From TrEMBL, chain A:
It comes from the Bacteria. InterPro entries: DUF881 (IPR010273). Keywords: Coiled coil, Membrane, Transmembrane, Transmembrane helix. It comes from Carboxydothermus pertinax. This is DUF881 domain-containing protein.
UniProtKB/TrEMBL annotation, chain B:
Keywords: Coiled coil, Membrane, Transmembrane, Transmembrane helix. Residues 45-79 form a coiled coil. This is Division initiation protein. Belongs to the UPF0749 family. InterPro entries: DUF881. The chain crosses the membrane at residues 12-32. It comes from Carboxydothermus pertinax.
Length: 231, 238
């Protein structure tokens, strides 16, 4: 059989036809891929869910913001109130430096040495009795040789030395007291200081315009005492 | 004019058929492509898709924001702990200042005038309680590590004076207390007791003159003192 000879025109036409067919197939496939109706239902549902979640988040955001405001304000108010109370109580406790008018007392052992005079050396009880007089005369703050007198300050003989706030102090003893200078001086001169002088101790009481009391320097640590339970 | 080749002439109908199909296809194609973007469904979907995308973005931002706020709340709540630390500090200074009612374990030292009958040549003044006796006991208790002190429930603070006036004690300027005087010390009961009982110590010094009893107590209560109102003392050094 003799092969059929086709003209070039036919070849060109077939080529275009092939090309067009391909495009057509692709286009119609794309159309199938285009979102069908179900897709918009799905999107609507998703949008609804998202909107609900966004609403919930907005609400949570509002309530969290309010909570933060309250906490910040409350915390600040509470903190300021606490710090103010701490300051006052530290001052009342003797744990801060303090100053004011008052008296300065210098107390020394009787001059000379020997067993007889040592019997009348200044003892712990002389000092705490003196402090008691100052307190009764209205002293508001006291220090002995740089040691602030607090509710827990002991004045105690350890051998022949006197220990205050666990620190050894040496004569002459310098007692500073803040209060009404006249009242403090008078009540001492008419009482305990007169006795000290009879025992040959060297003692001077001077009124001062301003005496400076150091802060209590001991660690404050409590293991047994606790606030009473409120009833 | 050039003659149409014979074989082409033969295929004239085939060729016509091919062109016919080609024409139809072209027409369909044009219509299809023009129609596609205007499909109602796809436009709605596109709109919805944009809305969903926007909502998703907002959602994501809000989630992040809320997470940030949550962690801030927990941080602030943690800061209440440092307020707790402040509260502890305050309690410490209040206890030392005596402005807080306190309780705890400790000992009670009971002082009373001597009960023994006196002979005529004994000085009765020696057998009653003096300020110094009370001060001696208080001082010893302080040295032994007492954490809070009181007499008959009244607080002993830094500026508490002890005045024995007849059968009563006057303390804190206005508080009058009747015998027997119970000196209360909150602290380690063993340390407090053994310090008082040291040979030649406070107990020995007092026992011949006045009645002194020491007992351990599991729950000592001492009142608070009204905060002082200082007229002369100011805080600071100037």
């Amino acid at each position: 059989m003799k092969p059929v000879k086709l003209p070039y025109t036919l070849m060109v036409v077939s080529l275009i036809l092939g090309f067009l067919l391909t495009v057509q197939i692709r286009v119609s496939r794309e159309m199938v891929n285009a979102p069908p109706l179900e897709r918009s239902f799905e999107l609507t549902a998703r949008l609804k869910n998202l909107t609900a979640e966004i609403d919930g988040l907005m609400q949570e955001k509002t309530s969290l913001t309010q909570k933060i405001n309250l906490l910040e304000k409350g915390g600040k108010v509470a903190e300021e109130a606490l710090l103010a109370e701490i300051d006052k109580n530290r001052f009342w406790a003797g744990a801060t430096e303090a100053h004011g008018p008052g008296v300065k007392i210098i107390l020394n052992n009787p001059p000379g040495f020997g067993t007889k005079s040592e019997l009348f050396n200044v003892r712990d009880e002389d000092l705490f009795n003196l402090l008691n007089e100052l307190k009764a005369a209205g002293a508001e703050g006291i220090a002995v040789n740089g040691q602030r007198v607090t509710a827990l300050t002991e004045i105690r003989m350890a051998g022949s030395k006197i220990v205050i706030n666990t620190k050894v102090v040496y004569p002459p003893y310098e007692i500073l007291a803040v209060g009404n200078p006249d009242q403090l001086k008078t009540s001492l001169e008419n009482g305990i200081v007169a006795t000290f002088r009879e025992w040959q101790m060297e003692v001077t009481v001077t009124k001062e315009n301003n005496v400076i009391l150091p802060a209590y320097d001991q660690a404050i640590e409590f293991n047994y005492v606790k606030p009473q339970e409120a009833k | 004019m050039k003659k149409i080749p014979e074989h082409l002439n033969k295929n004239k109908f085939g060729l016509m058929f091919v062109f016919f199909i080609l024409g139809i296809m072209l027409a369909t194609q044009f219509r299809l492509t023009r129609q596609m973007p205007t499909t109602f469904t796809s436009e709605r979907t596109a709109l919805l898709a944009r809305q969903v995308a926007a909502a998703e973005k907002k959602h994501k931002e809000l989630v992040q924001e809320v997470e940030g706020l949550r962690s801030k709340v927990s941080k602030l709540t943690e800061e209440q702990d440092h307020l707790k630390a402040y509260q502890d500090t305050l309690t410490k200074y209040q206890i030392l200042a005596g402005t807080l009612a306190v309780e705890g374990r400790g000992i009670e030292v009971i002082l009373d005038d001597a009960k023994k009958p006196l002979t005529t040549d004994e000085n009765p003044n020696l057998y009653v309680i003096h300020d110094a006796d009370v001060l001696l006991v208080l001082n010893e208790l302080r040295a032994a590590g007492a954490e809070a002190l009181g007499i008959n429930g009244e607080r002993v603070t830094a500026m508490t004076e002890i005045r024995c006036i007849g059968p009563t004690i006057l303390m804190n300027k206005t508080k009058r207390i009747a015998a027997p005087f119970v000196i209360q010390a909150i602290g380690n009961p063993d340390a407090l007791r053994s310090s008082l009982m040291m040979p030649g110590g406070v107990y020995d010094q007092l026992k011949d003159f006045i009645t002194i009893n020491i007992k351990t107590s599991e729950n000592i209560k001492i009142k608070a003192l009204t905060p002082p109102d200082f007229a002369y003392l100011k805080e600071g050094e100037k």
